[in-house]
Amino acid sequence: MLHSSSSSHKMLRPQLLKPLTFTQLLSNNKGVKLGISAGKRRIPQIMASSISTTQQQQQPVSAQVDSSQNSAPRPLQIAKRLEKFKTTIFTQMSSLAIKHGAINLGQGFPNFDGPEFVKEAAIEAIRAGKNQYARGYGVPDLNSAVADRFRLDTGLVVDPEKEVTVTSGCTEAIAATILGLINPGDEVVVFAPFYDSYEATLSMAGAKIKSITLKPPNFSVPIDELKSVVTKDTRAILMNTPHNPTGKMFTREELEAISLLCAEHDVLVFSDEVYDKLAFEMDHVSIASLPGMYERTVTLNSLGKTFSLTGWKIGWAIAPPHLTWGVRQAHAFLTFATSTPMQHAAAAALRAPESYYEELRRDYAAKKKILVDGLEAVGFTVFPSSGTYFVVVDHTPFGMENDVAFCEHLIKEVGVVAIPTSVFYLNPEEGKNLVRFTFCKDEETLRSAVVRMKEKMLMKK
Predict the structure, then answer these.
(1) Domains of the chain
(2) How confident is the model at residue 36 (pLDDT cuts 50, 70, 90)?
(3) Regarding beta strands 234-240 and 187-192, do their DSSP bridges make them parallel or antiparallel, or are they unpaired?
(4) d(Cα 219, Cα 425) in Å, to the nearest integer?
(5) If you ran DSSP here, which 8-state letter would residue 241 be given?
(6) What is the DSSP string of 299-323?
(7) Is the pLDDT of residue 147 over 50?
(8) Distances in whole angstroms, Cα of residue 146 to Cα of each of 3, 65, 304
(9) H/E element, 419
(10) Where is this region: Disordered (predicted)?
């Protein structure tokens, strides 16, 4: 036990309680390079030269080798569950686009900005001091706005506090759902072609992936094949409607068939619906709204596609409490919380009047027509797209051996970017004849891309 009467204790206490000033720190560390010069002060930079000679002598010989000397590069390190995945195709194509000055109709982000009222809501939230960590599963106002929007869209009433989880974009919502509800060895069915994060995240979870291929021209769900694949060992079906990359929308009949299978085999559904407001030729139907399906469905969505604010990364997952528990547990250890001011702005966005969504669809329908008409005039076989802002075409009339070779030729020789779809299949051979274009660009950009293709690719029929 320490006693305050100790003389040595009294002598030490003033020095222990009095911190060194920054000036004292400088004067006491003259041998350390701190990046301070006359008239300038910078944050101290601890340099290798600050290690004492004795310390250097104690370093292993290998640590003292000049890094500038030629040596064989060390192999890249990666966990086995991710070693098959390369740099994303979007990164590769975008890099080529920059190098060759190509018009980027590949990656699905708009080249125009989101609505002013949403951006102003974000600025107002920042100025109001809403800048610290948000509540882990979402700021209350956004949770309520998501629940309200879901009720308007589906007729389902959900508890914003217990059944809505805000995430850092839909990609994180997908990851939290898979990592929170799928165990190693669980079977999960996906529909190819699929968004590339599906396979990677399922691999991280240790899932066994079974793929059902949607084939052109209509990319219909092969119900009989699906029935043969879904068994008592199936844990979940991961689906996406409207569907990226094909633009297909799952019909009510297809969704009902999937629902019956899920009920029969006690299967969950993870439904990615980020393009639900970009439905052009038929109404979007959430599978959670079908009889008996809400209790076994996680509905995934986000702000970015609907409001042209993809860089904000605001997403959410809607599910009954018994499924939300797993989603939130994974979310807590992935990102914990999502950008606070952007969440407040997202709440304002979701309360936009219906006229906003009507104008959005009209605008994208016009953009779609420019691109589709142009692609058909050039000589592509263009497949129907009922939703999203993507169109898939058959490139084989132009004589290239596969989709990757065609897309590289398109960038280097024509100056337009598309995405090869083979990366969206478990078996890349199934997608080698198809490429994806996006029309989430302003009309001038789309017309310029069409002009380039007509000048250099036009095929006489």
Answers:
(1) 81-112+355-457 (3.90.1150.10), 116-351 (3.40.640.10)
(2) very low
(3) parallel
(4) 14
(5) S
(6) EEEESHHHHT-GGG--EEEE--HHH
(7) yes
(8) 61, 57, 14
(9) strand 419-420
(10) 50-72
